[in-house]
Design goal:
about 25% strand; about 230 residues; alpha+beta; 6-stranded antiparallel sheet
């Protein structure tokens, strides 16, 4: 069964489609519950500025946001982590995922999703769309490998690509089998996307994301990141 995300997005940019290079968007999804529904974030007022990302406390409420912040603080290796309810939920969850990926196996918090699992890859795509939903384009852009470099766009170009997008509904399908090679792990995650434009028109996309992460024992990992995307109009 697919994971369903109804993500409300009100922004201002350019083509209404997702930025995706050609062969070069919640609650955490567990391995057992990867088919569960990811809760929709609230719509945000129009804006084109990545600096005006919607606060996590506004997205999911103060109590839930504070619980997320507490989890973030417990696993983040950063001296000044972005574990703050004023940041987007996607940013906080991204820091949680990063911390879980860096922690030694014996030190992992009970709340961590196995960073080598397909569930963690699904969470990365969920955070990606959730960040777009919150107009936190920096966090969404950094979901692409090499700190956004794999997107083939600058942050400004990436953000502009969503200028005329009003709302995104994404279904995340069952991920493929994790494959390894040359010190890295790869997995494909299928998606079906319905993007509503500011003028009310809809654009539909079907395809998949290829995600990559380094294998065990190959150094400090930041977890799963998008390597490439193959999305076509449907």
């Amino acid at each position: 069964m697919p994971v369903v995300m109804a993500l409300a997005l009100v922004v201002g940019g350019c083509d209404g489609s997702e930025s995706a290079p050609s062969p070069a968007p919640n609650e955490a999804v567990s391995e057992a519950t990867s088919a569960a529904t990811i809760a929709a974030s609230r719509p945000a007022p129009p804006s084109t500025s990545p600096a005006q990302a919607v606060a996590c406390s506004s997205q999911i409420g103060a109590a839930k946001a504070q619980a997320l912040v507490k989890q973030c603080i417990s696993v983040s290796p950063a001296t000044h982590p972005p574990c703050n309810a004023a940041n987007s939920c996607a940013m906080i969850r991204s820091e949680i995922a990063r911390g879980c990926a860096i922690l030694d196996d014996d030190a992992k918090a009970a709340s961590c999703t196995d960073p080598y699992s397909t569930a963690a890859a699904v969470e990365a795509i969920a955070r990606y769309y959730d960040a777009i939903n919150a107009r936190d384009f920096a966090t969404a852009w950094q979901t692409w490998g090499t700190d956004g470099g794999a997107s083939g766009k600058t942050l400004e170009q990436f953000a502009a690509g969503f200028a005329h997008t009003r709302q995104v509904h994404a279904e995340i399908g069952q991920p493929g089998t994790i494959e390894g090679g040359a010190g890295s792990l790869y997995v494909s995650v299928p998606v079906t996307v319905d993007a509503q434009l500011a003028d009310g028109r809809h654009q539909h996309f079907v395809g998949s994301y290829a995600l990559r992460r380094i294998n065990r024992g190959m150094g400090v990992s930041q977890g799963w990141h998008i390597e490439t995307a193959k999305l076509r109009g449907g």
